[in-house]
Amino acid sequence: MMVAAGATVAQLQAQSPLDPLDNRILLCHALGLTRVGLITQSERALTEDEAQRLSALIQRRLDGEPIAYIVGRREFYGLPFNVGPAVLIPRPDTELLVELAIEHLPPSGRALDMGTGSGAIAVSLAHARPDAAVTALDVSPEALAVARGNAELNQVAVRLLESDWYAAVGDERFDLVVSNPPYIADGDRHLSEGDLRFEPPGALTDFADGLSALRTIVAGAPARLAPRCWLLMEHGYDQAVAVRALLAAQGYTDVQSWRDLAGIERVSGGRRP
Questions:
Q1: Low-confidence ranges of the chain (pLDDT < 70)
Q2: DSSP state of 165
Q3: What is the reported pLDDT for 91?
């Protein structure tokens, strides 16, 4: 789509082919404006360079690229996070896992975030609980670079380790293990729809039944958890029963699930006996 030089901010808000929220985000990004600036500078006319820049951004969105990748940033748990194609885009559903982690981590506790991606969970936890020592693992060096930048951006200390699941922490003990692992089953139609088409497949699916990463985490956590401490995991909308069964079969106690704002059982967990 081509935006004409000389078009005003007000005209572009009224005539865009995009969703109004997407359009406002791209206008702010292309023109260096705040949301207030869109109002106070509504009669500002675009230069040729601005029109070309905005045209390119709008076309990328019309082609399906996620807004968060286009602008390179997404807010999560009230904090800014840089994102790109190496990591999943943080989603509001996962804020439930952060809230539960904050609640279940003992004072001055040690927390382990498995498969950290952008670092959204680990950084949010470290920001909310400066008393905690937070370690985050990911198998992807590219993801760890993004997470490291986000820890610096939000001025928190997180120990980041390249690791295939628990490998890099050996027999270290933690007071909480959390994870939002790949849990979409291979071949699920959602993988070919919307933003998921652009996100790293290995962070979305286990290329199996959707439960293999969860099985690995459940099996390995008791050896890394202090007694009576919690394992908390995000999972798919229809996986709570299966995840509770995995936890119970491994001898976890107080096994339960928590519902997100949509009423869906989104996080399950249990305590090491």
A1: 1
A2: G
A3: 93
